[in-house]
Amino acid sequence: MLRNPAFTRPSLDRTKGDGKFTLHLIEELLSSSIPIHNTVVLAMLSSLQEPGKYHLEDPTGAIQLEYNAETSFTGGLFTENIFILAEGWYDEKVFHATGLGMPPAETRSESDKLFGNFNFFGGSSQVALRVSPKLKKLEDKYEDSMFVIMADVWLDRPEVLEKLEAVFRGLADSPPFCFILCGDFISETENMNHAELLKTGLKSLQVILQRYPGIMQQSQLVFVPGPMDIGITGILPRPRLPKNLTKDFEATIAKAIFTTNPCRIQFCTREIVVMREDILTKMCRTLIKEPIPDGRESRFKNLTLNLAKTILSQGHLSPLPTHVLPVFWPYDHALRMPVLPDMVVVADMQEPFIERSSDCLVASPSSFPRHKYQFHVYWPSQNTIELSQI
After folding, report:
1. Element (H, E) at 85
2. In angstroms, rounded to a whole number, what is the distance separating the alpha carbons of residues 278 and 326?
3. Where does the chain have alpha helices with state H?
4. Directed axis angle between helix 194-209 and helix 243-252, to 10°?
5. Is 0.90 surpassed by the pTM of this model?
6. What is the pLDDT of residue 62?
7. CA within 13 Å, CB half, 268
8. Residue 55: how many CB atoms within 10 A of its CB?
9. What is the DSSP letter of 331?
10. Angle between helices 194-209 and 158-171 (to 10 degrees)
């Protein structure tokens, strides 16, 4: 935050005006015996006592937060456990907020100025692959390479398999580089025969794929498990689908990759993060205050834009209280984005959306069967994405 030119470190001279905001620690506020006006605090929004009462918490302490109808909420979806910038005044162990906002997200070009070519994305290389001139030439050479992204690929539904084959048929002459298929892969998630339904569905998909040898030979098929797929449910990150259920499919379809949720994909210099989770749905259920549309856009468009801003400003794929979406703490690093990628796919069950914020794409293809068989097509060379429908 202190790298942002809009902020400065705390100064003993509070009368100094340079047009910048001064960040204060909660410890400093608590130690003051007089009111402090026009102050800004970077802290986590938490509920430490009764429901509906919120506190600002940082490593040095916690203070009660008071806000009212005149308090402005800007630039995100405000839920418990997110980090916010609170502007206002402090008196008698209470912070009176005049405005609450998200910390400004740092674009990748800004991060590069400080961290250089260090690899935050993942993989064995310590140098970020996005700066490789060889990979950039390869990316330009295959400028027509594309990704097809869809969610809720219900393999137990004949009508879904029929539409999926229609997609394969339409792309058979120029196969995409990659199909990203997100769960849930079974529509009847509470069925006692879930495992058998999944094996049968993968067998049906295998038969369909064998009709299109070009796709089998040229296209990667990445399977990202959904929140209700068989295995560990209701927590992030979650492991791949059980290998005992997918081994027959993998033995036949050589380019199939069954991965974790979330997962990271590196295509030449492009960095892509994919998560299958109904994050917008869950954030809307726990909002402290819903963002107000400015009149030029719909309520849903306003929500998706603020969702994108929230995820990117938090640098985390799950900015939610753990009682809403639990996190497996030893692997929480898999949800973090200290440096923003080129694209984040959240694959929510709501309507499809595409947003761009801080030079990063945030997109959701929606549920393939629930929303008229819509999906996304992504071109890495241009870093552009389009909504398609079969």
Report:
1. strand 83-91
2. 13
3. 26-30, 108-115, 133-141, 158-171, 194-209, 213-218, 243-252, 279-285, 299-314
4. 10
5. yes
6. 95
7. 19
8. 18
9. G
10. 30
ω into residue 184 within 30 of 0, thus cis? Answer: yes
Tokens 């969610």, residue located: 151
Q: What is the C-alpha separation between 182 and 166, in angstroms, rounded?
A: 18
**Residue written as tokens 């694959």?**
347
Tokens coding 214 = 């070009």
**10-residue averages of pLDDT along the chain (390 residues):** 62 50 89 92 89 90 94 93 96 95 93 91 92 94 96 98 98 97 92 92 98 97 96 92 97 97 97 97 92 83 96 96 93 96 96 96 97 97 95
| Sequence-distant (≥ 6) Cβ neighbours of residue 94 within 8 angstroms | 63, 64, 65, 66
Place of tokens 């509920």: 47
Amino acid letter for position 311: I
The contacts found for 251-259 with CB under 8 angstroms, 24 or more apart, are: 252/206, 252/210, 253/206, 253/209, 253/216, 253/221, 254/216, 255/216, 255/217, 255/219, 255/220, 255/221, 256/221, 256/223, 257/220, 257/221, 257/222, 257/223, 258/223, 259/222, 259/223, 259/224
- CA dist 267 and 261 (Å) reads 18
H helices within 286-345, ranges in order? 299-314
CB 337 within 8 A of CB 313: no
Go through the chain and tell me how many residues it has: 390
What confidence score (pLDDT) does residue 12 get?
A: 44
Return the pLDDT at 14: 47
pLDDT for residue 15: 46
Residues 6+ apart with CB under 8 A from 148: 167, 171, 176, 178, 179, 180, 375, 376, 377, 378
Across 252-286, b (16+ Cβ under 10 Å) vs e yields ebebbbbbbbbbbbbbbbbbbbbbbbbbbebbeeb
Rounded to whole angstroms, how far apart are CA atoms 161 and 232? 25
pLDDT of residue 1: 61
Residue 18's pLDDT is 53
